[in-house]
Backbone:
C-alpha cells in the first residue's frame, strides 16, 4: 500500500469513520511534489491524523473541523502545552482517583451481564471520577486539551462499539474488560507560531485566510448507485465525545442514548445532506462545488471515496467547472493497488467499489 520511499510520521487518534490514516503516504507524496507549499489548511480534520502527519513534516498546518472533539485532538497535537513530566503528574493523579457512580455510569455503563452499552461500568465509574476532577483542577486550556485527549484515547481503548456511538455490540468486546488507564499522548515538538487550530464551518476557515494548499476531506456518500448517498453523520456517530469534552450532562434520547442535539433532523452539515435539489443535483455535491470555488488556496487536494456513479459524474463536472485537475490518484483497498491517472475521465469508469480518490487541483 505504501508508495516507495515515503515513510509517514507516526500519528495517534480515536477510531474514526473516514479517517485517512491508510492513505497518509499518498497525501504526503502528492503534496511533496509541489514547490512553494508551506501553509496547509486541513479543512475537515476529523481524527487529525493527516494534520498531525503534515505538521511533523514542518508544514504550517491549520486544522479545522466543526466538531468539538476534533478541535480538542488538534489542540493537543498541534499546539504547545506543558511538558510531558507535568502532564504525567496530572494523569497519575487522575488515574488514582476512587471510582464513583455518576452521570456517565448511569447512561453509558453496563454491568457484566447487561450488554449493548458502550462501556463496562467499572470503566464509566473511573470516567465519572476523572471527568469531574478535570474541571476541578483548573488546568490551562492547552493542558486541558492534552488531558482530555488522553481521556478519549483511554476510553477508545476499552469501548464495546464498532467504532462509533450510534449502536452498541450485543456481546462485550474483549477490550472492554480492560481497565481504563490514562497514558501520555504521543505528542511531537511544535513551535508556538507553527500551527493554528480552528473550530469553524469549513466555508469560514477556507475563505478568511489564504493557504498554499487546502486538503479537503468532506463527509461522503455510500457506494450504491440506486440509493441516495447515506452519509456518515458525524454528530450522531460521535455524540459521546462531545459530551466527554463538554461534560454538560445533556438530555439524551433513544437506545444509543444520544444527545438531543445530535438528532437527525438537525442536519449539522450541508456535506451530510443526502437529498437532491430541484435540478436533480446532489445538494452535498453542489456545496462541494461552492467550496472548491471559494477556497482561498493555490492548490486543493480533494479526498473522495467512490460514491455511486451518478455522484462521480457530478463530481467530475464540478471539478472541471471550478478549477484545473492536475492529477488523480486512485487507491484501491481491496486490490491493494494504486492507479495514477492523468487522463481526466478514466477515474469515472473505475468499477471498483472501494476506491479512495485524491484529486490534485490547481486554482
Ligand atoms: C471524512 S471526515 C474527515 C476525516 C479526516 N480527514 C481524518 O483523516 O480523520 C469529515 C469531517 O468533516 C467534519 N465536517 C462536516 N461538515 C463540516 C463543515 N461544514 N465544516 C467543518 N467540518 C465539517 C466532520 O465533523 C468530520 O470530522
Residues:
Amino acid at each position: 500500500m505504501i508508495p516507495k520511499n515515503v515513510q509517514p510520521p507516526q500519528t495517534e487518534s480515536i477510531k474514526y469513520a473516514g479517517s485517512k490514516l491508510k492513505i497518509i503516504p499518498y497525501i504526503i507524496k502528492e503534496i511533496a511534489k509541489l514547490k512553494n507549499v508551506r501553509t496547509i489548511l486541513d479543512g475537515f480534520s476529523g481524527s487529525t491524523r493527516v494534520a498531525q502527519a503534515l505538521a511533523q513534516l514542518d508544514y504550517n498546518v491549520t486544522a479545522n473541523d466543526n466538531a468539538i472533539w476534533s478541535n480538542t485532538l488538534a489542540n493537543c497535537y498541534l499546539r504547545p502545552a506543558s511538558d510531558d513530566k507535568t502532564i504525567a503528574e496530572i494523569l497519575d493523579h487522575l488515574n488514582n482517583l476512587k471510582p464513583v457512580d455518576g452521570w456517565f455510569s448511569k447512561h453509558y455503563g453496563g454491568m457484566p451481564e447487561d450488554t449493548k452499552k458502550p462501556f463496562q461500568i467499572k470503566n464509566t465509574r473511573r470516567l465519572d471520577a476523572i471527568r469531574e476532577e478535570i474541571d476541578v483542577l483548573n488546568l490551562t486550556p492547552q493542558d486541558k486539551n492534552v488531558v482530555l485527549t488522553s481521556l478519549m484515547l483511554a476510553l477508545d481503548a476499552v469501548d464495546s462499539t464498532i467504532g462509533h456511538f450510534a449502536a452498541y455490540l450485543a456481546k462485550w468486546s474483549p477490550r472492554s474488560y480492560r481497565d481504563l488507564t490514562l497514558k501520555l499522548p504521543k505528542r511531537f515538538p511544535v513551535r508556538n507560531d507553527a500551527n493554528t487550530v480552528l473550530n469553524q464551518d469549513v466555508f469560514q476557515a477556507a475563505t478568511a485566510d489564504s493557504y498554499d494548499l487546502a486538503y479537503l476531506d468532506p463527509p461522503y456518500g455510500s457506494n450504491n448507485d440506486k440509493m441516495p448517498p447515506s452519509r456518515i453523520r458525524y454528530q450522531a456517530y460521535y455524540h459521546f465525545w462531545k459530551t466527554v469534552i463538554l461534560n454538560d450532562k445533556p438530555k439524551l434520547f433513544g437506545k444509543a442514548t444520544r444527545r438531543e442535539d445530535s438528532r437527525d433532523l438537525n442536519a449539522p452539515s450541508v456535506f451530510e445532506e443526502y437529498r437532491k435539489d430541484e435540478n436533480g443535483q446532489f445538494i452535498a455535491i453542489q456545496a462541494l462545488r461552492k467550496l472548491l470555488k471559494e477556497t482561498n488556496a493555490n492548490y486543493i487536494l480533494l479526498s473522495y471515496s467512490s460514491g455511486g456513479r451518478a455522484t462521480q459524474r457530478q463530481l467530475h463536472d464540478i471539478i472541471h467547472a471550478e478549477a484545473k485537475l492536475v492529477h488523480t490518484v486512485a487507491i484501491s483497498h481491496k486490490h491493494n493497488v494504486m492507479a495514477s491517472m492523468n487522463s481526466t475521465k478514466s477515474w469515472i469508469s473505475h468499477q471498483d467499489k472501494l476506491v479512495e480518490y485524491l484529486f490534485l487541483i490547481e486554482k
